[in-house]
Amino acid sequence: MRFLHTMVRVRDLDESLDFYCNKLGLIESHRMSSDSGRFTLVHLYAPLDDAQAKVMQAPLLELTYNWDTENYTGGRNFGHLAFEADDIYDTCRKLMDAGIVINRPPRDGRMAFVRSPDAISIEFLQKGEPLPPEEPWLSMQNIGSW
User: Fold this and answer.
1) Cα-flanking dihedrals φ and ψ of residue 70, to 5°?
2) Residue 84 domain-assigned (yes or no)
3) Most C-beta atoms within 10 A of its C-beta, which of 3, 19, 34, 55?
């Protein structure tokens, strides 16, 4: 058995691609649209999976955009997507600079959470050992839910 992808439904494809590609840094692998099914699927992968994606198809994130308007709820019920960060402080700083709210700051130097435009929780885990706690993260409070 091989893990293939995780699917999340999105209400605005352009806004979601901006978040996942421009802000999180994921790369579009391929897409497919169905006129009869009235949907578009966009598959994304993490940049460090680039070589693996070409050789054996790295696990993907599938964004499912249904053309007919639908209001999705329960993003937190989905669970979360998780990414490993080389430097969690740098990752969170770049996200904040891009206007992303850090819902659970990396106070412990190990873990942080943000939410996508569709309220999907995204977890970042520090690669290897946690970084030493530092400001401003140490003093930051949680914002909203994740």
Assistant:
1) -150, 140
2) yes
3) 19
Same domain (yes/no): 15, 55:
yes
Q: Is residue 146 part of a domain?
A: no
Please tell me what DSSP assigns to residue 94.
Answer: H
Q: Give the position of tokens 């873990």.
A: 111
**pLDDT at residue 108 above 50?**
yes
pTM score of the predicted model: 0.75
Q: Residue 45: give the domain boundaries.
A: 5-66
Catalytic residue numbers read 123
> What's the CA gap between 71 and 54, in Å, rounded?
35
Phi and psi dihedrals of 89, rounded to 5?
-70, -45
- In terms of residues, how long is the chain? 146
Whether 145 maps to a domain, the answer reads no
Amino acid at 129: E
Number of domains the chain is built from:
2
CA 55 distance to own-chain centroid:
23
Considering the domain boundaries, does residue 45 fall inside one? yes
